[in-house]
Every structure is written in C-alpha cells, then in structure tokens.
Amino acid sequence: MPEPTSFTSRRGLLLGAAAVSSASLLVGCTSNASDDEETAAGGQPAASDSPGKPVTIGFAGPQADHGWLNAINDNAKRRAKKYSDVTLEITEGSNDTAAQIGQIETLINKKVDVLVVLPADGKALTQVGLKAMRAGIPVVNLDRIFNSPQAYRCWIGGDNYGMGLNAGTYIGEKLKGKSDARVVELAGLDNLELTKQRTQGFDDALKNYPNIKKVARQAADFTVESGQAKMAQLLQAQSKFDALWNHDDDQGVGALRAVEQAGRDDFLMVGGAGALSAFQAIKQDNGVLKATVLYPPTMAASAIDLARALGQGKGVGGLAEYEIPSSVTLYSAVVDKDNVDRYMPTGFR
C-alpha cells in the first residue's frame, strides 16, 4: 500500500504498486501457491501463477495515440506473457467505433474464452459487449464503461472523481495556511464524462478549504500541443495564482513548456495519470510540478488476471465469494517526492 500521507490517511507491471485497490482483490491471481493450496475463503479454488487450464483472451482497445493508451496495451501484453496458459489475441486498435466493433466481432467468431475490451466509446460498443456475453464469452470491461451491466461480467477501471478529490485535497493541504489562495485548472476534453468527474471531485475537495478560490479553468485535448496552448492562455489571463491542477500528464508536458516560456515559478502544479516524465520531474524537484495523481494503466494487467481467472473458473484469493467481483475501482494515489521512487517503475512513456 502507498505510504500514508496527510491527505490520503487515473496514463513495470507491479500490480501492488499503482493498481493499489486491485492488488488486495487479486492476491490469489498472483500467488505462488498451487491450485490445491490457494483457495478463496469460501473454498472455491483461486487463480494462481501455476499453469492451469489454457485460456485464450481477446483484447480490444482504442488506437494507442496517447501515452496512457500505449501503456494500456503494453501492460496487457506483458501480463499475458507471464502466464504459460494464456494466449492473447490482440487487435490493432481503433478510435473508429465501427472498426472496433468489427474487431470484437472477429474475436467473438474466433470463440475466444474471455474478452477484455477498452471501448473507444462505451455507449457505442454496448451492443457488441451484449453480443459477446450472450454468446457465452465473459467480458472484462476496462475503464470506459458500457451503458449496460449486462454487457460485461466485470468492470475494472480508474476513479476519475477520486483523481480530482485527491488532487484538490493535496493542494488544499499545501495552501491551507495561506489566505485568499487562488487556484486554476487545466482540464481535459470537456465532452468526456471522465473530465466532468475529475472537475467535480476537485471542486468538492476545495469546498473543505474556504481560503481557496478557483479563479480559472481551461479545457485542453489531452495532447502536448493543446496543453501548451491552453496553459499559455491561462498564464496570460492570470498574472498570479498559487496552484494548478492539470488533468493529464501528456498534456502536462506542453503545459510545462508554456510555464517555462513564461518564466513562471510562483505556483505549485499537480498532474494526473502517472507518466514517467512527471515522476522524473517530481523527483528532481526543481520546477513547479510537485505531484501527480495516478490513473494507473496497470489496470490492463489486472484485467488480464481477472480474464484468466474467469476463463479457468477460479475465484479470487482472500474473498469469501466463489466468483470474482463485478467491479474493481482503482485508487487514485498521489505521488510526490516522498513516495515517487516507489512508483517510478510503473511510469509510462
């Protein structure tokens, strides 16, 4: 578990590092005990590292046009290679919903044992999730959720509201001794529900700090270019503020360029997701970036563990239930200079 902090008391494959919440649930999936030795609390055999029934897992995600999405694919591939009893059928990935539906239908026709799907658009892909489930292929829905719980057997993903809540609480604790503190927010795509959830969590956290006022908000596009352009606008409009929360470490690269170009160092910055570049900047501690809030791509490795357990009809060690949970929400830990070394192996490029 992360080291406790005053504020905690979402882009290696250390399941127990970044994917903190799933680690306790999936302990049976990573145990070194044999199937005979490792059982769920209710007596159901739990998945283990020891080879078991062969499982073919179909993996379908969006195009890896973002550092976090690329890390999702890498985590899935590397986790699957860990198991000699797992065969991974991975699609090319597409942001075109029709193309992704076609890829998933191909996997269904191949009769894979389990599907892991990170939909480009959860609403648009709900029907193909339902189609797989009705064909007897359990679906692990990764991150972007389908509209119907009937379209998946298990959902695993990050906590967007929790990201905002923990970012706001971290900033609040840093500024609680300062009167009339001012903060700004560099959000992601405003047409995404996840962006709204991150902002809501941030705003709710700031309600606990009456000395702090959010004075500006800009929405970027989760890209380096948009981060730089929108941050430049914020800096020009706000001559003085005390803290910035940036929703995404990829767009944060551009935001930091804008900060450097403006010659500003009079505020602290908190990022989001967990990029390696952010971890490195936090460790160096010679700029405005002081922390980032995790949205761990290790969730894809955890999804492979869950899919393998489903395919083998196994439970999860440490739980009384015979079945794996219907949902797993990962914790949005805050990484700063005090614990960055622990999380460095999980940083994505």
From TrEMBL:
GO CC aspect terms: cell envelope
Recorded superkingdom: Bacteria
Statement: the UniProt record of this protein carries the keyword Signal: yes
One Pfam assignment: Peripla_BP_4
Periplasmic binding protein domain: residues covered: 57-314
Family indicated by similarity: Belongs to the bacterial solute-binding protein 2 family.
PANTHER family recorded: D-ALLOSE-BINDING PERIPLASMIC PROTEIN-RELATED
Protein name as annotated: Substrate-binding domain-containing protein
